Amino acid sequence: MSSALSSNRKHIVLFGETNAGKSSLFNALLGQSRAIVSEIPGTTADPVSKAMELHGYGAVTLVDTAGLGDESELGEARVQKTKRWLDLADLALYIIEPAKFNEEKFESMAAAFKERRMPFLLVWTKKDLAGNETPLLRGFRSVSVSVSDPDSITALRAAIIEILQKETAPEKSLIAGLVPKGGVVLLIAPLDAEAPEGRLILPQVQLIRACLDENIRCHITVPETLPEALSELPRIDLAITDSQVFKQVGEIIPPEIPLTSFSILTARQKGDLAALYEGAQQIKLLKPGDRVLIAEACTHNTSHEDIGRVKIPRALEKAAGGKLAFTFYAGKEFPEDLEDFKLVVHCGGCMLTPRMFWARQNGAITRGVPFTNYGMALAACTGILERATAIRKAAK
After folding, report:
1. What residues have CB less than 8 Å from 104, skipping those under 6 apart?
2. Quick one: pLDDT at residue 134?
3. In sequence order, which residues have a C-beta less than 8 Å from that of residue 189 and are 6 or more positions away?
4. Under a CB-based contact definition with an 8 Å cutoff, are residues 117 and 38 in contact?
5. Is 383 exposed, middle or buried (0-12, 13-18, 19+ CB in 10 A)?
6. With 279 labelled, which of 66, 130, 159, 238 sits at a CA distance of 20 to 30 A?
7. What percent of the chain is modeled with pLDDT above 70?
8. What is the dihedral sign for C-alpha 310, 311, 312, 314?
9. Strands laid side by side in the 343-346 sheet
10. Can you say whether the dihedral through the CA atoms of 144, 150, 153, 158 is positive or negative?
């Protein structure tokens, strides 16, 4: 469980008003004191997340959020951080203390969950207190718990597992449907200043594992030895490379061999590949002075070869015929105001869950802002977008 990436875990998020018992329940589900528990409203300032093993299901991430009714000095900012999780959760637990049930607030939250097609479970807390009778809400799944009653916590875990198994989609494979079982994949992985010393980057590791899971033979080389690798392999069903060497590799790989990138495969797994392709098509419409947002889901030290800060901006400005106005975001932060941007270029999203990636992509598209990713942007700039995204037909 400890080695499972956050992007590979379902995120279970606790929502509710202040002092509904969220943090106490969070600790009870974890079996440890992770969140601070207090009678003082607004104790939980920022969302607190913790990886856990949900026995009978697998690795998940549990997230405790600030109370939605926080009226403290910083309450509005806390509530806004909580509401961001509405677009990121795979399963919502709506925590309510029966004695403080507010029908209007409940209906508002239920509508928010349904709008996002997010499964949710009502959790009535503090059932051990006198007078805490549970309101009758027909048509909604619910569980009554007390943190001092281990059996009720066990029943809650069982309800969570049942919903996750029945109503959340399993992680899509990076390679399934593109290469037949027993097929052959050739990976071309450049080792430049951005490659971690002694290690492969995460998308490369994930793809190798996906090939093993699908009984696909996987060969790996660097661009410098690619011609020799081609001469040694009588059969190649798919060649996959890093986006930043598309042009170099595309000139060596014969046209009859399908070619794509790690980033594009990740996009196929996480988001809407057809919409990302359409976003890449908008690059040719960029003009000098246009604003472009470049976002990546992880943080790392940058260098003179950084793909997001150097190579992609350089390629986009060449395509636009002049200087562009770039804004950069890294990590968990992502802006809500996107209307002033002409294009969003996102990383492959290997550190994001599919719901998290989709929230960013859909947020841009609904605001009329084209959205694409690193791999497709570089393919478009080097003139091989059609070849590199031929897999979108299989994605349908």
Report:
1. none
2. 77
3. 195, 200, 201, 204, 220, 221, 222, 241, 242
4. no
5. exposed
6. 238
7. 88
8. positive
9. 325-330, 291-296, 343-346, 371-373
10. negative
CA distance 267 to 264: 5
Instruction: Tokens 């309510």: give the residue.
Output: 96
Domains of the chain, CATH where assigned:
6-167 (3.40.50.300), 184-263 (3.40.50.11420), 274-395 (3.40.50.11410)
Structure tokens at 56: 């009978």
Q: What are phi and psi of 306, to 5 degrees?
A: -60, 130
**C-alpha pair distances (Å), 146 with each of 38, 52, 101, 113, 308:** 16, 20, 16, 24, 48
How many C-beta atoms surround the C-beta of residue 302 within 10 A? 14
Q: What is the spatial distance between Cα 143 and Cα 121, in angstroms, rounded to a whole number?
A: 8
Average pLDDT of span 36-60: 73
- The upper half-sphere exposure of residue 37, i.e. CA atoms within 13 Å in the direction of its Cβ, equals 13
Give the three-class secondary structure for 327.
strand
Which of 26-29's residues contact partners 24+ apart within 8 Å by CB, and which partners?
26/50, 26/62, 26/64, 27/147, 28/145, 28/147, 28/153, 29/62, 29/153, 29/156, 29/157
Q: Look at the alpha carbons of 64, 67, 72, 76 in this order and tell me if their dihedral is positive or negative.
A: positive
Beta bridge partners of 143: 123
Using alpha carbons, select from 261, 242, 259 the residue that is nearest to residue 250: 259
Alpha helices by DSSP H, listed for 116-236, are 150-167, 202-213, 226-232
pLDDT score of 68? 78
Contact criterion met (CB below 8 Å) for 188 and 226? yes
Helix runs in 120-216, H state only: 150-167, 202-213
Residue 298 DSSP one-character state: S
Strand partners of residue 240: 187, 260
pTM score of the predicted model: 0.79
Residue 390 is which amino acid?
A
Name the token pair of 101: 């049930």
